[in-house]
Amino acid sequence: MNWFNFKFKAPKIGEALTTVFSNPIIYLTLIAILVLILIFVHANKGKLTTKIMLHISMAVALASILKMFRILKMPMGGSVTLGSMIPIIFIAYIYGTRTGCLAGIIFGIVDLILGPEVIHPVQLIIDYILAFGVLGFAGYFKNNISLGALFAIILRFICHVISGVVFFASYAGDQNVWIYSILYNGTYLLPEAIIAMVILFVIPVNRIKTQILRSTY
């Protein structure tokens, strides 16, 4: 069984958009979420400077690109990416939880558009809005980005497990649905967490943070 399968998977935009807009409830849900994001940005326009919004955009773009690089394809399903959560975790570490959650939600929407798997509007919210949005909670650990990253990834794991139990129970067959969902999501998120820990240990986190905060663009 060949699990190691490093490759770049380009999104099929046409097919993805067809999936997203195949059900009016799905795209109406997405529109409602976008409206809420705009309201949030408007309400916090004094705090969300042009510099911060630029950094959020850069982080989301980098996270989306990294997510296309698949390192492992797990036997139960799901793929391990090249540290796709790290840019969002960095935003949370630098600018705090609220900004990190906003970046995570935007990343979730981009991921939804590029490669959706939607069977219900609530499942969309759990798997793409909440699961990516909670990555912003890494910002609670301002003095330890590794601990913050681990905490955020665990929260994402919990979101996906709940979604799996509620909406994908039929895939479990005779297996306990909780065990199935935990194994399915754990087999790719555990390696993702390990990769994130290794990368965050290797790169000069505090130096990068200082340079970003000092930047004037």
UniProtKB/TrEMBL annotation:
GO cellular component: plasma membrane
Pfam families attached to this UniProt entry: Thia_YuaJ (PF09515)
Keywords associated with the record: Membrane, Transmembrane, Transmembrane helix
Listed transmembrane segments: 20-40, 52-72, 125-141, 148-171, 177-205
Listed InterPro entries: Thia_Transptr_ThiT
Domain of life: Bacteria
GO molecular function, a single term: thiamine transmembrane transporter activity
Protein name: Thiamine transporter ThiT
Gene from which the chain derives: thiT
